[in-house]
Amino acid sequence: MTWTQRLSFALATVVAITLMLPADLQAQSLDELHKSASKEGGTLNFYGTLAQINAEKILPVFEKRFPGIKVNHVDATSDKLVARAVTEARGGKTLADVLQVPLENVSQVHDQGLLLETKLPESAEYPEGMKGSFWVSSDLQFFVAAWNTTLVKKEEEPKSFDDFAHPRWKNRLIAEPRDLEMLLAFAKYKFKSDEKAIELLRKIAANNVEFHKGHSQLAELLVAGQAAACWTCYSHHYPGRIKKGAPLNYMLTEGVASINATAVFKNAPHPNTALLFARWIASQEGQKAMAQGGRTPAHPKVEPVDKTRTEKIYAISVADLKEFPKYEKIWKEIFKLR
Asked: The whole model's pTM is what?
């Protein structure tokens, strides 16, 4: 073997070992991985949109479970976190270890080549559509129907989204103008047909839907009795309000799921710590912490504290995200939105 051939072989071996390293780390138990993580300085740089009210309950559970590691939570909107990560990478630095934002934004960072392709062992318990080659679902946000119980009679209460096509809902519906996920999910998963999805939405549009920006705003309009029903509301907005006595109810027979996902940065400054957090948050243990912290867990065996998960789930996938422009155009045309 010539010197050049020996050098090429050596380089190939190094590359192979490097590529195998994440798999080796994944084979370890979380406690074994914690020992390796403890040698990295005791910090996890977490770029996440986890609301402070949730983060204050969830992140300390991780810190208590794995002593010696403190989470540095960089909290910002998803678009700002994406811009920050990309800017840092272009400057030759990767400062973040873990990214936890809506799947759409995780996909954007992956498109820049910044995320680790890794299959976490904990992801084996997740169904297809809730995991990918570089991400695992951390929690879900459900679009559902909700209504004011003083304005909607018991016999009128919707059992499915199809019910809103009935003329009884004319001038009684509100929605969020940016929720094109409804059309996309109906086309891909509820009906598996663009034509049937468009047909339903045209019937709903014929009932003169009134649009308001902000899902919290929609919920408050229902509380105040300024609308009878909303058909693009977030399920997690309702249990708390109902507990406080608001005259509300919401539909859990079916819902469109928006995924928040966890991913590890390819050049994370604390790679073992990053994998430790990603694996823990995907585990049943971590998902129970997410539930106790007020989120709707993505793990199929972990129930949310409040009833926020629907029976039928139409989850928006990475592939679906690529088709947003197509469905946004149709959505706006149907509802005459600018």
From this structure: 0.84
> What would the DSSP string read from start to end of 50-71?
--HHHHHHHHHHHHHHSTT-EE
3-state helix, strand, coil in the chain (%, to 5): 50, 20, 35
The whole-angstrom separation of Cα 16 and Cα 90 is: 26
Same fold, 3-138+259-309 and 141-257+318-335: yes
CA-to-CA separations, 222 to 8, 145, 146, 208, 233, in angstroms, rounded: 68, 11, 8, 17, 10
**What pLDDT shows up at residue 24?**
57
Fold of 3-138+259-309: D-Maltodextrin-Binding Protein; domain 2 (3.40.190)
2-44 tens-digit pLDDT:
333 433 333 333 333 333 345 555 579 999 999 999 999 999 9
CB atoms within 10 A of CB 267: 13
The SS3 call for residue 151 is coil
The residues with which 74 forms a beta bridge, in sequence order, are 47
Cα dist from 10 to 1, 2, 20, 22, 24, whole Å: 12, 12, 15, 20, 20
Indicate if the pLDDT at residue 83 is higher than 80: yes
Residue 22 is predicted with a pLDDT of: 53
Residue 26's CB is within 10 A of a number of other CB atoms, namely: 17
CA 175 to chain centre: 20
CATH superfamily of 141-257+318-335: Periplasmic binding protein-like II (3.40.190.10)
DSSP per-residue string spanning 99-136: EEEEHHHHHHHHHTT-B-----GGGGGSPTTSB-SS-E
Structure tokens at 327: 């469905």
In angstroms, rounded to a whole number, what is the distance separating the alpha carbons of residues 33 and 125?
20
Q: Where are the domains of the chain?
A: 3-138+259-309, 141-257+318-335
Q: Which of 17-31, 187-201, 209-223, 246-260 has the lowest mean pLDDT?
A: 17-31
